[in-house]
Structures
1.
Amino acid sequence: MNTFLLESENDMAYLKLGGQLDYERVTDYIITIRVQNKYNLAAETVVNVAIKDVNDNIPIFKDVAAGTVLEHEPPGAPVMQVRAFDADGTYEFNQVKYELNDHRELFEIDEYTGNITTKITFDREEKDSYVIKVIAMDNAESALLLNGQPNRGQQSFHIIIGDTNDNPPKFTQKNYQAEALENANLNALVTEIRAVDNDTASEVYYSIVDGNPNEQFKMEPNTGKIRVNKNLDYETTTSYNLRVRAFDGIYEDFADVIIKIENVNDERPRFLDFNRNATIPEEELREGCIVKVEAYDPDLPRDVDQHIKYYIVKPELEEFMRIDDTGCLTLIKPLDRDPPNGYEKWQIYINAKDEDGGPNSLHAPTEITIILTDINDNAPYLDMPGPVVWPENKDPGVITKLHANDNDGDNNGPPFHFELDNFAPDVIQKGFRITDDGNSNYQIEAIRRFDREQQKTYFVPIVISDNGIRPMTGTSTLTVVIGDENDNEMKPGHSEIFVYNYKGLSSSVIGRVFVEDEDDWDLPDKTFGWKSSEHRDKFQLDEATGDISVMYNPIYEDVLEGTFDLEFSVWEESRLFERHTVDASVRVVIKKIPEIAIDRSGSIRLANITAEEFIALSKREELQKYIGKLFNISTDNVDVFTAFTTKTGEFLDVRFSAHGSPYYMPEKINGKLAEHQSELEDLIGGKVYMVNIDECLIEKASCESSCMNVLIKHERPQTVRTNRTSFVGVHAEIQTECSCSSPPAENICYNGGTMVGKTCNCPEGYNSGPRCEVIDVGFSGDGYAWYQPLTLCESGRINLQLETGTDNGLVFYVGPLSYSGSPLKVKDFMSLEVSNGFAKLLVDYGTGTSLLEQKEVNIGDGRKHDVEIKWNSKNIELIVDSCTMRTCMSLAAPVGTHEFLNVNGPVQVGGTSKNLGALGSQLGWTYVPTSKGFVGCISNFTFNDHVYNLGEPSYSVSASPGCSRILTQAVTFGIDTNFLVALLVCIAVLLILILAVVVHKRKSDDMYKDHDDIRENIINYEDEGGGEGDMTGYDLNVLRLQHYDGDFKKPHDLLGSRPHDEVPDICGFLDGKKRQVDEENTDEPVDNLRHYAYEGDGNSTGSLSSLASGTDDGDLNFEYLSDFGPRFRKLADMYGEHSSDESEGNYEVPGSESWC
């Protein structure tokens, strides 16, 4: 922008300002002016312009900062210096002076230097800061204001009154009170106290100066928090009076802190001295206290009630004795000193619990020994290991010496006296005798020769007496086995071996060659060999023992299956007869069994029957047929593949599977057999100890808490041998794991899901779990579904969602399915039901039923509700809709002494197959679940986070996976019941009107119908077929005979004339029609030949409708229909003159019911 402008006017040129001038920027200008004529002649001149300064700048403060002055400083104390600058360029305009605009009574400022000083003495506790305004002005009239005054600038400054330690700290109160538990942890906070100090520059420090013996407490110096420093003990000191100090470096203050120690139950009860040994006679029920114990609670003064409860530690002793609250131990049943169930010294452990045995009580044990004096209350018994063997055909002699024992003490025991029972059978008395050598050494002798083939074993009753004060006499049985001698020649024999092939049979002995032989200890005298070479590539024979085993062959080992007839020769030689040979045949049936059959197998545990009896008596085959009949499937679809005696020798375990397509789940098989347990026992002849073998079912028998069953499948088979029948099955047994961990998740996706990485991509259209499980199932009140049982866990949790519009119904039940007097006596169960619209939970650990009800949330309102059930050895919880308030959750303790839920039956959802009322009365449940079925939808059923696949139950009746076909309740849709009834009535009336119109229209059409065109039975079957001819669009003309030259005849004309009672030749009639069709010439392609036996237009066999049509009443004689047989009886009744009802005697059955 040009500062100056040059304007020409005639012969003159004027120099003018083109913009503002600023002296502070440019003080003078040198301007060169050039003039030029038309001849381009020019001249120049220089003009000097000097700028004159004016007062046009306002003083401005620099370095605006806060000032500080300490309190209590005398007047005149410096505070701060302020500085302002004036930008004018000349001295007469840029000299600055200062003055205060406010607080002039407090501060003053030097007008030339800007130094601010105090005029009074300040106290920070009154006011700790000030804001003052300082004015800076220059020394001439302002060129901006034009009011004759100088330019002025103003700035605010913050002045802080500095603090000095001039105030003492003060505690908020002089006396404090606090409480601390005697079992408080170290460093636990007891209380916090504070002292107030008006000075901010001084920091307060806290300390305990007195009343803290042994430094039980410590105090944080900067916060005033008092903490526990050492363990407290109420029984030692009940309170502390601490003297605490607050100090700021100059001043201090004191306060008292009283800390009361709260007594907690941290001391176990202590027993007073007593006589720990008591001596009483055995088998005597003594009145009064055997021993009296007394304990006290160190947490309580001795002169108050100690609230001690006494308990017998071992539950098995509670049937013999009890102890009351006074510590008096009394007998309720006599004690036995003698084995096997008695002890000379009984050790009893007594627990004393304080706080009346409450949940937070502590206990202390003590031991009592009861010494029993002996009485002669046991008869002596024969003490000899196993049976004794006496060879057959041996001359009379001593069989063995006799030894006895007595469970009583030595004073009531030996020496013993033996004699043969006078009531022994004649065969015993004529075969044996007992003799004494005179020194109380007794022996039994054979007094004749024995023949094993006549009798193998003799049970000899021996009477034994002891030497007690009152002698006791007992009878024991000595088993004498007659040893075998090979004195009978063998005969040909036949046996059968059934084998299940599971993962190969290499080198497995499957059975033995059998021959008929009265001798049974003569195997060393026999030699075995092959008679036929057939199947020798598959089986091998041990020539010494006759054992048959499968030969190793990797080609067909795993797939060996079928029936194999093996032929052998057996040689025998004895000192009593010459060497001879017989034939023996063995049929081996091998069936391959897949692994899924074992994984999905059911099982039963039987008592009072051995594996040999189960096989030899064909109980395996009977069980196989029974299961097939129970499930209405072929016996070939049932496999009983395991039968073995348990390790204890007490039970027989049997496993089996069944399949239609696919294999049935074990819950289905076990559940059905459990429902028919009595029939099963009658069939097998043994006692069913357990259905679904569960080694965890008996509490603490295998594990102390959590327990899991694991099916172990051994590759080597299990063999059961009898003489004529042998069974080789799969060795599959249950073993336990003392844990509750879920098995690893299978890398499979259910219901059409696909695996993507480690997760499942599930199809749309239904609610699904992490493995595409269908997570909801619906019921309409008359069904149920079975799922896998619950695992025994130390603590369990079930979560589910339910939606129902009804007030009552069983949501789920898990527990026994039947009761037939099983020695197990396991009656544990759990059930959840909707009762009057609210959730009701029943849980029984086997020693009493706990009832939990939730009365806050109505779950029968048609909405979806969450239900959570938690249980452990101490508590059972029922929570609805995640509500943890006391009003909408229920908490109870298990009833009785059992601690876990032991169940092995299926989880029955939506209802149950059993009448739980009858079952509950048999099992003695305190509360019985309802048997009323559930109406609604159940979803998201999980047990310890394991998602149940509700869409694939093991067995179900009227269950709808996905809740797709549930009977919808009116309340579900919020529809009033009266409105719904009115709506249904309107719909019914409308349907009746529509039906009436349709019937009326059909009758109107029949009035004008051509009677020669019979079409009332034409049906459009949307079946594709007939080759290219199917393009006729279902034209029934293709059904007509193409070349039928004969006259159309009625059916009865084709049968010919006959007497009324003659049986028509139906077979000839049908054969004629068939022959007519076969001989017909047709132009249609072969693949279009069809002859449907439909009545109607073009059908040569006529139409049944013709029975009601025609113009000649003579054609309406249909009496012959009654002679066609039972299949035509209805037609005879409809069109004949006489009824064919057998009660009227007008019908006689002419032979067979068959046409041909």
Note: The longest helix spans residues 977-1007.
2.
Amino acid sequence: MKQPSSPPSPSPSAAPLPLPSGLVNSGNTCYLNSLLQSIYNIPYVRRHAQLPLSGVFDELSAGRAARTVPLTNLLGIDVREQRDAGEFFKELLREQLAPDAVEAFTGSVLEEITLDRAEAGEEATVRSKEVPFTDLTVPLTSSATTIPRALAEYFKPQPMSYRKKSATRSESLASLPPVLAVTLGRFEASFANNRLSLTKLHTPVRLPTRLELPVPSSAPPETLRLAAVIVHKGEFEYGHYYAYVNRKPLEEGGDWARCDDTRVAKVTLEEVLKDSEGKRGRWGKSQGYGGRGAQAYIVFQMELHAASASAGSIAFAALRLAGADTLGCDLACDSSCSIKRVKLDATTLSLDVDLSSAVNSDTGNTKPSHQSRLVTAECNDDGTISLEYSQDALGNVIPDFSMVGYRGGAEEIPTVATVATIDAVEGEEDATARIQAAIDTVAALPLEERGALLFGAGTFRVLTTLYIRASGVVLRGQADGGTTLLSTSTTNADILLVVGSGDSSGEVAGTRVAITDDYVATGSFTLSVESTASYEVGDLIEIERAVSEAWITSIGMDAIPDCEEPDCYQWEADSYELMWGREVAEVVDETTLRLNAPIVHPIQSEFGGGSVHKVEWASEGRLSEVGVEDLRYASEFDEDHAWDAVRFEEVEDSWVRRIECWGFADSCVDLQDDSKTTTVMDCSSYDQASIITGGRRYSFNSDGVLNLVKGCYARNGRHDYVQGSKTGGPNVFYDSSAEVAHADIGPHHRYATGTLWDNLKGGQMRAWDRGNMGSGHGWSGAVQVFWNALVTGERAASGELQDLVIDSPAGASNYGIGCVSDEVGGGGIHDSSGLHVFPKSLYAAQLAERTGSQYFEVRAGGVPAAHEGEFADMLVEDLSEAADDGTLADQVQQADGGGKLGDDVGVEKVEAEQVWVPPDHLLKSGAAASRLFGLSLIQIGAVGGALLAAGCGGCALSVVTAVRDRGAGGGGGRMSLQDFEIGWFKKGRGSSGTEREANKDLELVGFGDLRGSEFAAENPMQKKN
């Protein structure tokens, strides 16, 4: 089902960026702080920093003043000593940046020596050598009043003697790095009276906002943007450094901030240029921020394509092999197929690409890209994935969430046979009784004969609640929203459909045993107990963590500020036992039980420890194999009307998929406490109708255990993906999004535990202490893992900057890993803030590891438009019809038989899952001007069409290349790519065993700007709303 048109989002550039965080001066470390602020502003460099520098960058990303003590200690820096920022820049590149980051600063100059008069038979050029550089130190002369003039002086040919012959030594730019660092030679040495002395040159130098530099090519000159400036004020003997950084290098004028240790302020471009140019004279007389003794010292200029990458817009061309030959990669990706080397030639581009940095040359498999320090992944030779978890001092790890959803993720949701039908009746005022009778008829069949009740097209008006009270019953509507169940109830808080047995469970007498471990760590699958004599494999059990007043005090919940009865209540121990439903997976020995799912919160003897007891249901127990699918639910009244569309109560191994909900006051799908192993997927909640206040608009609520919400969408809700009081996990919200959000995503109140928020996109996301909100909500949750989330004001109703807040209660942790947010806050565990990590999905990777399946970052692309795997949403974020001959997504779909994204043609022909590629998964290129993405376009057998596939399997037929666009303004426009040729290699045994398939032509599938989901900047190729 397609998403209806959303209200126009505010331009990302309309809202100012938050000020950067400052850096604490540890003594005389202003030179270090100014340099770190400058390179932190370059995302490609930031993502390749190594510890402890990456730890400093993480603190900056978290929005707090960062300390550099770990870095200065490692490098042996005397913080009392003043140092030269230019010299330290070289040391930092050598010691603290990975080779990929150093490459961002690495260009080359061509050094040549030419004889002034060559004799007969003698070559005029006697030496030609390309020499790499990471910065250019240019001399300052009376004529070098601008950067271009200073560079011209630097590259001016010099006369010399070569083997007693008159010659000329010349240097010219051979290749430009993505980020050009120019150090102005402000410190001049002189020798007099047997004494060496250094003095500072105060020569004013005007900085260009755009710099064009020629390189040896028939192409136009390279254009660079001003990205950062390090200013020195003072003299050689004394002085101070600070930096100006441009957070929006693509925009005219940029978005500038001055970073002077912990003092950070927003400034204009005019202020930057005035202060950086400086004036002749001594320090202390007023002339801009720094005074007359302040001048630019190191200037960072960024290539347009690098600036686009940092702002979230990368020009690309998508190419594929022509013809029907799939070279054996038609159905699956494995180590038998890989590109070893590709040479592309065009009138505007020449690439000689070495894939060794991203493809394992022995196996042909894709190498993992940027990873978290808390969970690391390794791609195995057979395309499977292995994960390793970092433990804290007490042994806690991020839990395994992979056993959530229908049948614990071990089986696909079935498509059951239709056993009954019901048609809409025109003019019928209330179809409740007729629908309920049809449901009951299916429920009365023998269990093995039950199946789907198929609704005909049209609208069924429903006045009161419908119930499913038997297993094996599925309600199914017509595809694409052709069936609507319209609630006509005028009763506040009514529910349209309730699924559940109505049964209740309780403790089995005599089975309670104490947990004897002093400390059970998060992520553990085993428990030590007094005795396992009463337990067998498959027993339903409940683990109860005792709660003492000491624990309540330790997390501050007995002293919630401004919390007085009857409006607010402090927490009391007897109301806050934490319980988790599990099954016995193995009776290991007389005192050890292995569980079917991990512990998701520490159990400590110091707070009373815990216990285990068996559970039994009074009669039928939970329903199973119940489904609700392909239906549209709607409500036609405001506030006094049905609040929930679908509620699951005592249910397991069941599902809700492909439903739409319109106008309900509270939930589209509400999974209650007793729901278990239920999947909610590809569902949408639109425009809930109620006043916007507490107790309303919880679009997808999950309060059970081992439940999965996947591929869903919400618009105009409040807490769109949410959990309530003391919900015990594991539970997962995965690959879902929200727009026009009026409140945050995350655990809502009173200590939900063990939830993975995986690849969610929305407004605010928080795991924190809500204090006296509600009636004393306090800590919303613990062991809450936000993985590769995107938090942006574009998705909030207010349009204002949004925050990701990760705080941790005492004794437990909350995590923000690989999350990209307008603002970041909280004292919890933040890792790789501002940059998504590999694997893209923790849940999908954990499931692949547990089941032994190949793990794919992406799979084939012609998929249903219902959110999970939506091509335009996941690969090319909101890519519109910028190009005359269609976008990448449209052309891929047209190649697949015609039609546009989401049309039936593509959906019927291609079975596929996600399409997503992290822009940080970059491959090295022989040409510094270009970067190659670690993903591939493949053809699927007779279906045809360019479809994406990549991951641990590493199959590749053709490539998507990011190239510098030479169109209008350099930041967008049409590309002219033609006459491509590819050399295709099939993997053989050993380097000499490769076998070439010659002359495989490439077709240009599409072009535009790749706008990764982790970036919130504007795509210049998109049409404006």
Note: The mean pLDDT is 73.
3.
Amino acid sequence: MLDLRIQACTRSDLSDEEPGTVVGFTRDAETTQSFFLYSSGVVHCLKGHQRQAAWSLATEGADSEGAVLACLTYIQELEALQVAFRTGELFLVECQEQTVEEVGKVEDGIATISWSQDGSLLLVVSCAGNLLLLSQDWIMLHETPLFQNLDRVTPARQLTPESLPPSLSLTAQLVATAWRADSQLFSTISAAQPGAPMVLRMWTREGQLHAVGEAAPGLQPVLAWQPNGRHLFAVQQQPDGQQRVLLFESNGLQHGGFDLGIAGRTVKQLAWSSDSALLAVMVVPRGESQPQASGVQIWVRSNWHWYLKLERPWPHEHARLHHMEWHSLSAEPNGCLVMCDDSGRVESMTVSQAPAVSTRGTAVVTDGKSLLLTPLRHTLAPPPMCAVTANLAAVPVCTALCNWGDAEALATMMSDGQLAIHGCLQADLWEETAESSPHPDSDAPSLGPGFLAHPVVQQQTVRCAVWMTKSLMLLVGTPTEQSESQADLLTEMQLEWEDHKCTNLSIVGGGTEIPGAVLTATEDGDKGALLQLQSGALWQFTAGGGLQHCRLLPSFPAPCQQCWSVPADIVQAGGAPLLGLTASGVLYWGTVKVAESCTSAAVRDKGPGGAFCLWTSRDNFLHCRNFAKLLQPEDSRSSGGAGGPRRPSTWAQQDELHQDMHAAMRGHGLAAPASARAVEAGARIIAAPRGATTVVLQMPRGNLEAVSHRVLVNALIDSALQAQDFATAWRCACTNRVDLVTLVAHGWPAFLTTAALLVAAVPQDQDLVDILACLRPVDGAGGLLAALTPDQVQMGEGDPVAQACSAMRGALQEAGAGKYLRPLLTCHLVRGELQEALTLIKQRKEAHMAASSSHSTLGPEEPSAEEGLGHVLLTVEVSTLYRAALGMYDLEMAYMVVTNSQLDPGEFLLELQEFEKQPNPSLQCYAIDMHLKRHLAALRHLLAAGDAHFDAAILLAQERGLLLDLLGMVPGQAEKRHPMLRALAESLRERGMHEDAAVAYAAAGEHGAALLQYQAAGQWQMALALAGQLQYGPSETTELAEDLLEDLTAMGRLRDAAVLSQQYLQDPDRAVDLLTQARDWREAMRVAWQAGRGQLVGTLVAPAAAEAAEQSMRDATEDCQRVHKYIVRYREVQGKRLAMESLLRREQEEEEGLHPYDDDIEVASTAVTGMSAYARTEQATSAGSTTGRPTSTVGGRRPMRQSKKGKRGSRIRQGGPQEESALAAHITQLRPSQQHTSEAGSLAETGNGPF
């Protein structure tokens, strides 16, 4: 789909420099030097693009009689010019010293000569038919005869043996050579004498015959290897005089060919561009007449078809093209074609490849004298197929599609100077236009020649054209003759239309000269045209010949080989009028760099969401950005990178080979932004049709694919939903696999009021089912909640999924519940309401049975109950649905579920029969509940079965821990509550919940059992209270107090034990001893003095207090030592941190640089022992509570233990990243606690006592 465009064309005329004709031409692209050899033997050297004369020298070979040039070659390695004559002389011209030296002579004469591509070997074919291979030092390496026996090589087809004359005298018309790009093979095509068939041979660089080409009659002495080394190209003359190019493989086999269509002329030279993309063919007249017939054709192969993309007739009369060659340019991948004629005129033509596409998506492809038109918005027909063909009188030079008005138009400037205009009936309906005026000469739809205007401009080559309006067009041309200013000429054309046909064309005013060469010409809204010069300057041309420099418009930072117009509304909002792509792959919008590493780009000017910029990148992503968002400064800055997904920072340090390897192994697994979509490697944008969500891409194989970019799709869906056009939004979402939950989540909670519109817009009930199914997440992902923002969730009332289902259910019921059984069932299934769904199926079954009894039928669109059940079984497991039916206590529905599934009904029939045999409905429900393990419901139904099953109910409650629930089910029935409370108490006692069991026993009136449970729980107050209520005597009370004292002591509740000893056992000595063990020094002294036992303070309290004080002093001393050591370590760590921070600030390290500490480094931890330990273990103290605990109805709890993981995490790692903060926290923890200070005070009070 790519056409050639002449980007630049420069000319120079040296016809007056030297008398005679040019017999040799070559060029050094690096130093921009051009060398000419005249028939007089004089060598001229010109420098620069303007080709200013540098020096000239005369060679001695031209003085000999009959000396004819055999070769003129510039040797880059030697920085010298080699001149070879047919008589055998070899001269070397030193360009720096400007000297001529004869380096050798071939005695037999030279028929042809050529250097290898690497410059290491010189191939000479002597006139005597020998192959000579010489080194750079002119040393003979190999010599072999050219005409070897053909029987040595077995060709694919039998070759006729060559007949050799007695003596050979080869000329350039009998032999030609060509080297392959790797310099490992060279080929020769030769004939021993005039009129003999030519034979193609392949040779190794050692002069060994490698292969012989298939026989092809009419071969000409013209050869060219494709730079990639795939094929060798040769020229064949057909019997009818037509010229054909043949392709040969390196083994000599033919590989197809194509016709040139140049009857009456012959091919003089073939030349390939360095990227193997463009083949230039130089054609000249066969005789001396018609010199103006010389010219150059440029051919391109794509999709297994050869296209003639450009034909450049040589404009100079009485001159014949002599030589051409491609030169690579860094700014243009295809390079520059330099042509020279025999009079000294030189023309350099820079070409580029780009698609010719309108904003509506109509693509124009040049194929010789035909234009292939395809409206890509309607059909994808890759060339050479097309929708419509336009047959022309000559090969096009440039084409321009008109985007103005209601219908497109096509302008074509041809190589003969004629301008053809074709108009379309409506919009881009080119097929209908061709069918409206059929042409008998064409079987396929054809537009015919169109309106033809004979040479509209003189003495210039039109390079590009642009439509300013439907009736105004601008032509940009380069003067045919050399000009000092190198300025282009602008010609404004006025067109007149009648319906869709152009009726007249005229030139408006005279030509306008622009100061420079135009690189691109683009329409500028309704203002005219924007012209970008080779220098990057931007000029604006308005109707009437107005030309002004656009100094106020943002120009590109670098010249752009392709430009696209930006819609007027974006320009009015402050955007640049042009989007440009440089040859290096940088995409600019005015001065803003949009992306780098781009391979193609396009603009979708109109459609949902506004105007969008699209481009493909070298990492094989298709990007799409809204121009309105690109206007935002932060967006512009964020998109200034490569435009693709961000790679790890280490990729930037790798060479291109390793990056390609990573990309090949990871594929498109890289996280791509939302505006990017992965595409096939090598895909290029051809068109982004107006108003469409698709982008047309051409793959490397030549086929076309229309892909929908998610950004464009979302824009269309958003626009449709804003207009409440649910039909369009639904179709777009289904076609492009967009999550259908978008239809519900858009503008939430607006859907709650527009659900009826969605139901009316979606035709099939199954489509509504798909929408409803998307509301629920799958595998924890997706769903309505995931599509809503937290603010949107708060805007609704309750669960959004439930609200959406309710809104849909209401809309479906209004539209007809019978027709939408499946969506209604899905509304319940999404919310997990299986029983409600089964109830709906049951209602449909009953309605069907009622209709059958009244001899009526359901509507044709109303699904039956069995169909609805089958729909439910698609998403719900049979066992789950069967259990839900049993949970409804509906055995018929359960059986219906089984029979409509893939399971064997016999497996469930016995079970259902057992349920049905139950005599009591309550017992039947009880049996079903027990089967479903719904024990609470089973308990309820067992109670409802009657008093005969009350004991069984208590037993079930005991087994399942439902006694409290059973108590709630039997309120106000004292005769039943007593056994239930006793059973509850026994259950709590067995579970070790003694306090709760005591409460239950007391409620049941069994106070003796309650006292024992209080005693087991350590609740001595309640135990003694119940003893008083049971009227215990003094001895019994004392015995109970002794038992309680032992239990409390064993539990460690020493203070409570001391209270019992003093109050109920009248044993103050024992009470003081217990308080001393509890380290309650004040209470111990109070009890001793109260009971008149002051000596106990000296015998029991004081020694224990002294020992405790001594231990406290030792602990305090150890803590002070620890604090001192930790403070020293803290200051050391803090100093290191401050020094490191100072160093980092001084070196201005980036975030990715080295840090003083690394969380991922495992360091050794300090031993936690003795004085060097970081951790501190506090001495545990046992203290009984002074008051009883409140009654608990939950039961006892086990003490929580700290996990080992948490214990390890609390250690301080020496050298770790958190050592400084951990040290500070640990030092703070070493301060005396409130308990220690309080105990120290009480010890001081004890020490000051009278003992």
Note: The longest strand covers residues 501-514.
